[in-house]
Hints:
By secondary structure, this protein is an alpha/beta fold. It has a single domain, classed as TIM Barrel (Alpha-Beta Barrel). It contains twelve helices and eleven strands. Helix 3 runs parallel beside helix 4. It is globular, with a radius of gyration of 20 Å. The two termini are 19 Å apart.
Amino acid sequence: MDRRQFLTLAGTALAGTAADTVYAAPPKSQMGIATTCYMTYWRPQDPLAFLERCHELGAAGVQLQLPSDADGVRKLRAKAEQYGMFIEAMAPMPKANDQAAFEAALKLAKEAGAVAVRTGTSGGRRYEKWNSLSDWKAFVAESTAAIRTIPAIADRIKIPIGMENHKDWTIDEQVALMKQFGGEYFGSLLDFGNNIALLDAPDSILELAPWVKLCHVKDMGVQTWGSQAASQGFLLSEVPLGEGILNLEKLVSAIRKSNPKSRFSLEMITRDPLEVPCLTDKYWVTFPERNGLHLARTIAMVEKESRHLQPLPRYSKMAKDAQLAIEEQNVKSCLHYARVKLGL
């Protein structure tokens, strides 16, 4: 199903009905679904209800925020075991001088039967969150001190932890962190698309392959932003698997070869395109060592791909039922593609 069909379905608010016809009784996937697939419109609040829905879609597991109460954790684990589904949990980063909350989150993950835990050093985009080089350096120092505490805790509790590349660290920076701190239980949650926003080449994420514990599977579309004379950068969006610029077969194969135990979870975020203002002064404040090669290579790639890809869709002006329908359809399409084309 192509982009035009998606938008037609969404515009008439019939995508959910069509999807149920196409994907009725879906075969079991080997891929999980992250709650972030529904961070824009559905926004599930109940972990058990989310797991139930992912089971109905044929997913192999879920990546989610665990219930805070012991009874909720027991029920979630029991239902996941009944369905034969895996659970990936989430944990806040520890603080350099206080790891109590982090350890508690890991122990809760063990009680839930989680196979791995997702963490990350920031929830923001580097070029938006930090306004000066000194602020960025302070973040690096604080985060590195916190990261230093993770391996010993992970080794003691014996649960894999993946730190996400979340539009904060460049691939070179994260590889350096993994070389210093990565090990049997601490490594990377490899997001397939985030680092394009930092002007890293799409395939460069495979430099993190030796440390991958978890994955966010996604495909990315790019588009020129404004006229050549007035452009501030480029647009970047998650798109249904197989419709973007990523070599998904290469990425999945390399990760499987490097770590056969690594899990794959879908993160198809249905939202308006993100603006990457890489042609503005503000963008470069925290990149003193990044040279023009990264910019030139990325802009050339965007211009080339923009001629071949359909315009990136915008959803924010749609009616609520259409937004919900297309969000669900995008997830179903990705599960189907991953099973048929990627063996997931």
